[in-house]
UniProtKB/TrEMBL annotation:
Molecular function GO labels: manganese ion binding; metalloaminopeptidase activity
A GO CC term attached to the entry: cytoplasm
EC number per UniProt: 3.4.11.1
Keyword annotations of the record: Aminopeptidase, Hydrolase, Manganese, Protease
Record's protein name: Leucyl aminopeptidase
Lineage: Bacteria, Pseudomonadati, Pseudomonadota, Alphaproteobacteria, Rhodobacterales
Source organism, top-level taxon: Bacteria
EC class (word): hydrolase
Pfam families for this protein: Peptidase_M17, Peptidase_M17_N_1
UniProt entry tagged with the keyword Manganese: yes
InterPro entries assigned to the protein according to its UniProt record, in alphabetical order: Leucine_aapep/pepB (IPR011356), Macro_dom-like (IPR043472), Peptidase_M17_C (IPR000819), Peptidase_M17_N_1 (IPR048816)
Family from the record: Belongs to the peptidase M17 family.
UniProt source species: Sulfitobacter undariae
Signal peptide region: none
Amino acid sequence: MPLCFAPDSPDAIDLHIVSQEGAEEWLGFLPPTVAEWARASGFTGGIGQVLSLPATDKLPAMAAAGYGSAITRTRGRFALAAAAAKLPAGDYRISGGLPADQAEVESLGWLLASYRFDRYKSAAPMGAKLIAPKGIDAKRIEIIANGEALTRTLINTPASDMGPPDLEKAARDLATQHGAKIDVTVGDDLLTANLPMIHTVGRASDRAPRLIDMRWGNSGPTLTLVGKGVCFDTGGLDLKPAASMGLMKKDMGGAAAVLGLAHMIMATGAQVQLRVLIPAVENSVSSNAFRPQDILTSRKGLTVEINNTDAEGRLVLADALALADEEKPDQIISMATLTGAARVAVGPDLAPYFSDDARFVAALEASALAVADPVWRMPFHTPYETMIEPGIADLDNAPKGGFAGCITAALFLRRFVTDSNYAHFDIYGWQPAAAPARAMGGVGQGTRALLDALDRILTK
């Protein structure tokens, strides 16, 4: 079900946003008996607190949502969404208390709080619906919310229903929705098309590997998004332990993220020429699985020694990035659930990214703060290049030692982009515990910041 605002209505419930600093002042405007009842109910304006006030002769029916304090709001995001999930069913019109510069972010949070993944089990919808506050771009907020919902749903869907053919279908459906062109190269045709490492990683699965190539737009700067689409990762012959394999349905989170971002770009009519490349594979175990110590030759001609078959994501991305770079677009951005090292470094809430372009960094950092989509810059630390050079091949897909794993992975990918501006996101794609506007499960990271920064990133 699309995430959208409620239509304006004379029957809407007035909703007052009350901070902890302003709670006593707000209570002072209420009739004394009502104010005392509110105090007795424990309402102090804390984040997630709600208060429903029944109609009286002097006071119409209304509600209040706690907005916390300046300090508590810095410790999380989407403070209003925490209350929205607890309000009684109805349509709500914000009547005051919400800072104008937070209206769009908090409205988006409300829509995201109403997301439900109900493909396999029914889930009660959130009863409280928001009427879009005046002054916000409601259509754009709805587009962003539904792009995020697409990302979440693709990640949440298990590999039994989200293999390479299913990911292809999701991309085709999106292309049809927006009038984009799409081509898909499947199975042994990958060898003919000189995409050998995508074929090698995915050949052990009975669901054939493929490269999804979608294009949209015919004017403006050129932007290519590359998303890792490993629909399930067993680790290959270097088999993962059960504890590490449990969340591997989300190893296509990079593909899910770029498809969600592509929806946002196309639906908002951004003036760009967009290309989306997704290598969609399963890293499976079979008699024809690729092996440790194999040496692969990539599309770019660089040879890669395989020192761990569980470092497969960078292999499929490498061929896709080399293909992307051949057109010399103004910007290439890859997104992938690539390394555990990134999670250890910054945890699940931040989206680590790599870029040497000061203009890109400045635009992204400003947007991330403005739209509450936190990112953290990591270094393309050139002295570590020697760590990915094994000696008998050009590159090593899994350097020994365990140090700087997310950096060496990013450096590996950068070897395949030589003619374009390049940024890489090593995202987690998963919300490990429920938080305001973010149910436990798949989640988008970095995409809203990228959308907001797009014009500045692509302006030369």
